[in-house]
Amino acid sequence: MADPKEVHRRVMMILGAFLMVMGLAAAYLAFSTGGLPSFFYGLASTAPVSPRIEKLRPNLVAWNAWGPAAFAKAKKSDRLVLLDISARWSHASIQTDQTLWADSGTASFVAQHFIPVRIDADARPELLLRYPPRAWPALDILLPSGAPLAGGSAMTPELFRGWASEILSAYRKRPEAAARWALQRENALSSAENREIQETSAGSQSPRRRLAAIWNPASAANALTSVFPFFERISLLERTPYPWARNMARQGAAAALHLEDPQWGGFYRCARGPGWAHPATGKRLSEQARAVEALASANPEAAARTAAYVDEFLADPRGGYAASQAADLEEPGGVLLEGDYYFSLPDKRRRALGVPRVDRRLFAAGNGLMAQAVLNNRRIAGPRAVRQAERTLSRWWREGIKNGCARHELSEPRGLSCYLADETDLGLAFLAEYGAFHRSNSLAHALAVARAMEKNLAVRGSAALRDRPAPNTAADKSAALLDPTLNARAAIFYGRLAEALPAGAAKRAFRGRAQALRLWAERRGQDLEPALEAFLAARTKSGSDAR
Hints:
By secondary structure, this protein is an alpha+beta fold. The chain has three domains: about 130 residues, Glutaredoxin (3-Layer(aba) Sandwich), CATH 3.40.30.10; about 130 residues, no CATH class; about 160 residues, Alpha/alpha barrel (Glycosyltransferase). The protein is about 55% helix and about 10% strand. The protein is built from 23 helices and 14 strands. The strands form five sheets. It has a four-stranded mixed sheet, with helices on both faces. It is globular. The chain starts with a helix and ends in a 5-residue tail after the last helix.
């Protein structure tokens, strides 16, 4: 048996060492700008050993703006179009600028063989429908007609030049085959008649089976795939009466907490694993809005933290919400501090280093989503957030909406856009304001938006709405599309508007339009987000369009 005195001595030594370490930690915090040495974060810390990269390098590619001039230049010079779809909140987009587009050999190769075109993902939502990104940034090689030949994402300079050379070689050998394929593709995308016949067959999978095949909310990320929180999916499923859907929503809400910023609140976009260990640290307004809606019942504390994050970092004092916060910190002198290191730090240390850039542009859909999330969940979001939501809708009505048509971006000088997603989300926000305060002008604003949708987006001979007004010229290479998911969301807006309107012709008309849109979208179930399909099916059975 051990000597009691010796045991006591060892215990006191261990306790003394522990207290010394805690004292050092306290001194470090007291006399530093915040944060602990890296060993205090544990052996499993995901913070990189060398977080800084070299000074930001210039982009050497001479990009063209999207538009008829770029495609005319491609046709005249018999060159393909290289389309880069980038995002300000994306770490991968910034890294591609620092590696691929800052490489002089790649810039020369692109100038010799392509007409390079770059677009901002947030500014051009209609192009995301036509060229859906597989990852960020999205790289597409297009024919001069606008039809895509191949798609990729972030690459090294050597890999990019090899990939693009293969596409060029194949195109030069068989240009007629590429042109035929391009024509078929354009017809399939732009023809309303072709879209009308793509209905769900009797053997199509149910929403439950399709969700089971694409989404396991309890799974952890791995090294090869990214896992997303899917807040809209969670919100839709928890509003259905189906036990399987509500259980899946609960699992999804619990798993999504892996992506919450533990210091400031708000949610990162996605993560890679194992164990959700490497989040993509950009924060987008639309994801924060959907998080508030999805977590309001499942985890009201997390929903409140998200609303508080938006109020502190993204709210515009005049009304409105900024589009996003960048994934990385750009420090003075053009040095980038990578987000996976920066966001692993405590609050005090972060603020001492600086705050990642906020994209202050105000986009209609994101502002509508955030305003309705706050107004639908007023007690959770709090009075400050509610006042900001009211200011936001008031400002949009004054500055960003004319005759019911909304600008896509509030300060965009090119005029009104009237995108279907923008109209739907702002219309739902006005209805949320009406539901919160029963102000007649809020209902009038929602009605004006709905009538503008009918005037500018309706398709003759179809129940569906275009994603945007029809192009004015044949030179426009992004034809308006009939998208089932956008139309399903519009059906929800029309249904809620009909419920809010007093008895009369307008109520009957929008109730009928909601049913027609819902049926149109349901018949295209395989092209529809499965959670949205399940939600619509539940509304159809109950005869209700309520939240």
